[in-house]
C-alpha cells in the first residue's frame, strides 16, 4: 500500500514488468486481473478529468514538439481549467518554472532542448498538474549524476510538502535507496518483495539481478556494493543501474 508522503521506487531487471505496472496505475493499460484503488475508489470508476486531477504521469520518452516550454508545462493545468486559463494557472506555471530554474527556457521550443532539459519539462508539467499521485518512468533519464540527485531531491521535497505520493521506476538501486521510503522489486512480471529499506538484502539482490553483493552503511543509509566476482559483468551491473548503456 502506498500512503500519502511516500516516495516508492519500483526496481527490477529489464522486462520485469515495471512499465506495465505503472501503465496499469495510469489507466494506459488495463490489468489482466486484480484492481487498483485510490482512496478506496477503483481507478476505473473515476471520470477521465477527475482521474487527471488525482494522477499525473511522466513517461520515459517524449517526442519533442513545436511548442514552447511555458505552454508545454501549462498543459499540466488542463484538468483544472474550465473556460479559460486563469492568472492562478499562469502563476502556478511560473512558480514551477522558477523551482526548476528554467526561467531562461520559457520561450524555447521543445525540439530545441537537450534530453535533460526535456526531462525537466516533463516533470515540471506533472508537478503543476497538482495531483495526489505522481507516476514517473525513470525520472533521472537523460540527466547527469548531479542533476539526478537534484531532481530526486526535488521530487521528494514536493511529495512531502504537498502530502502527495510518488511511484517511480528506478534502475540505480543506490539512488533509489537514498531518496525513497518504500520499494517494490519485480522479476518476470511478478512482485517478488516490497517494503522499506530493510527488505534490501544480498539474497534479494541475488534473486532479482543475479549479482553477488553486500550491504554497507554510510550515515545509516544502506548501499549495495557488488562483490569483486561481478565487477566485470557489465550486463548484470547495467541491470542495477551502475553501467549506462552505450
TrEMBL record:
InterPro entries: AAA+_ATPase, ABC_transporter-like_ATP-bd, ABC_transporter-like_CS, Metal_Ion_Import_ABC, P-loop_NTPase. It is an enzyme of class 7 (translocase). SMART domains: AAA. SUPFAM superfamilies: P-loop containing nucleoside triphosphate hydrolases (SSF52540). It catalyses: an R-cob(III)alamin(out) + ATP + H2O = an R-cob(III)alamin(in) + ADP + phosphate + H(+). Required for corrinoid utilization. Probably part of the ABC transporter complex BtuCDF involved in cobalamin (vitamin B12) import. Probably responsible for energy coupling to the transport system. CDD domains: ABC_Iron-Siderophores_B12_Hemin. Residues 1-213 form the ABC transporter domain. GO terms for molecular function: ABC-type vitamin B12 transporter activity; ATP binding; ATP hydrolysis activity. This is Cobalamin import ATP-binding protein BtuD. Its EC number is 7.6.2.8. Belongs to the ABC transporter superfamily.
